Amino acid sequence: MSSILFTNARLIDPETLSDETGSLLVRDGAIAGRPGPDDSPAADTVVDCDGLCLAPGIIDLGVKVGEPGERHQESFRTAGRAAAKGGVTTMITRPDTMPAIDNPETLEFVLRRAQADTPVNVLPMGTLTKGREGREMTEIGFLMDAGAVAFTDGDHVTRDTRVLSRALTYARSLGALVIAHPQDPGLSRGASATAGKFASLRGLPDVSPMAERMGLDRDMALVEMTGVRYHADQITTARALPALERAKANGFDVTAGVSIHHLTLNELDVADYRTFFKLTPPLRSEDDRQAVVEAVGTGLIDIICSMHTPQDEESKRLPFEEAASGAVGLETLLPAAMRLYHSGALSLPQLFRAMALNPATRLGLASGRLAEGAPADLVLFDPDKPFVMDRWSLESKSKNTPFDLQRMQGRVTGTWLAGREIYRAA
What we know:
Blueprint: E1 3-13, E2 18-27, E3 30-33, E4 45-48, E5 53-56, E6 58-63, H1 76-85, E7 88-93, H2 104-117, E8 121-124, H3 140-146, H4 161-174, E9 177-180, H5 185-188, E10 193-194, H6 197-202, E11 206-207, H7 210-226, E12 229-232, H8 241-249, E13 254-259, H9 260-264, H10 286-298, E14 303-305, H11 313-316, H12 333-342, H13 348-363, E15 378-388, E16 407-417, E17 420-424
Helix pairs in contact: 2-3, 4-7, 7-8
């Protein structure tokens, strides 16, 4: 048995929402307790945290890795390095690959590649319909047996409500979690900005925030009809929040997430057509951003994710309307989240409740907490460390971050997976 004693640490506990100085003992890959100030248990390794923050490792729900089919944008090797450097100990990967992960054989390939090339945990999702085309549902049971932890077609919204209702009914019978992208597909098709004065002045094709509300309303009706376990991948507008609140009040098995980009950026950051800021859904107004931040604080929105979407240079260096959507975020998730901490909008325990505990709870994982017996998946970080983001220093193969050259705070010092060190800052 091996043991590690972390001393002089600022322990960020998302379960008790506490932030206090103390020690943490790890034995044989699991958390063994918190020794008191007068205790000095023997340990093989002692790590003096020097007052830095020690928190559960981040569980990032919705990471895009380019294997199979788009390895030139991101491989499991580069994504794994980026995750470890960013304090992410578990990646929940998306199935919107080429080909899509809609059969057990493709899923098994992904798991083999992930196990061989990544230092972090990788839990893959499968598609809800074959080819993400919204016409025929996948064999959800076989995919679950092969290791799929959830099912989603990503931003390909199923237009045929009958097909979707059948898929949700089947998922409900198996206890599967379905992750949906709440948008009205007709209104949002071809849009690259949120409707408003800014989009009009820039001449960009836009979409009303109501498209998100309409998509969520349809999904909530189907959840009520089928009783499926449901997670909205991104809620980004104030107008969608009442529908989410009603669904939770009615006792539906519903959770929601939001990307760190929609929590820390707004539509004005697009400025003069900066394509690194082109996302799906598009960046919203400042009022929407503040409403969503408040919803994370109250717990109405459960999960913060990076929505890591690598795109190569050729895909981004195009006119704004034609450029690919998405941004990388595995390494920038934590420092971007520190913006919310330093602004006083959210505390560190609230942030790690949304980035670690809630994703673990939703997926039935034992990690995401500092409780005794939990896996010792940990991140040590300095929330105050200033730096200027240089996209060329990222471990990700693609460098499409909207935070390039921005002043940021928050650096990961070390990352541990089941008590094994997988990253240590130089």
